[in-house]
Design brief:
Structural class: alpha+beta
Helix content: 10-25%
Order of helices and strands: HEEEHEEE
Largest sheet: 6 strands, mixed
Distance between the termini: 17 Å
Shape: elongated
Length: about 140
Amino acid sequence: MKTVAQAIKAILDPIVADSDASGAFQDDVPQTSPPQAFPRVIFSLENDLDLNDTPQRARDIFVIVKVISAASFAQADDIQALIDDALHDVTLTIDGYINYSTKRQNAAPRLAETAAGGAKYYHVGGIYNVQIEKEH
């Protein structure tokens, strides 16, 4: 069964490979982890709402996709632009559902972080809205 997360990961995997970034689901990234390879692409499902406005079962899903670079905002922006080109207005294939809209809704918070050891990390991302309806 192909879920929303699997459909998005299938789109992100080639971008991650082509940009020499490492990729992971947010749930796969431990909160306290050893140094990771950078740049890094992570995404997480942030919200999954049942709409039920019509007799058909519909869902409104929000996904954050973020690039973390140890080099610069420019590197993170370049990878994020590839992600946005691939995800904005794409039709996802999700088992049992029809995807009628996938759009970038907003930018994720842009952040320059300084870690305890002095290393800098640059976070850039987008928030995507995936709307799906149960197939009948």
